[in-house]
Design brief:
about 120 residues, Trna Endonuclease, Chain: A, domain 1, alpha+beta, 3 helices, single chain
Length: about 120
């Protein structure tokens, strides 16, 4: 299995986990000008969450979660702006960037990984 296939399986597991926990999936794989937001979802409190999915085969969940670098967060912020331009209905929602880390045995959801940067 190649990395794209592994990533697709991880994203599907993340979506299933989010739905099971009451999230509404707004969009998957939002792409614009060289960046992608894996999942955009509304949580049960109507917080609009921009979610990066990391699927790991080897290594720890914590290593994968902490591999999201500042440049990824900056690119996500640009993605958020583009998403909101195309979807103004959500411009007044509270927003957060999350990470969902998938491995063979578990799904771990880290909420608001950027603190106040996107809120």
């Amino acid at each position: 299995m190649n990395t794209k296939e592994i990533g697709n399986i991880g994203e599907q597991k993340a979506v299933e986990h989010l739905i099971k926990n009451g999230y509404k999936i707004v969009e998957r794989n939002f792409r614009k000008r060289g960046f992608e937001i894996d999942i955009v979802a509304l949580d049960t409190s109507d917080v609009l969450r921009f979610i990066e999915v990391k699927t790991i085969v080897d290594g720890s969940i914590e290593d994968a979660a902490f591999s999201i670098e500042t440049r990824n967060i900056y690119r996500y912020a640009i993605g958020v702006d583009s998403f909101l331009l195309e979807n103004p209905l959500y411009k007044d929602n509270t927003m957060a960037m999350d990470a969902v880390v998938i491995n063979a045995d578990s799904v771990t959801h880290y909420e608001n990984i950027t603190g106040d940067l996107l809120i």
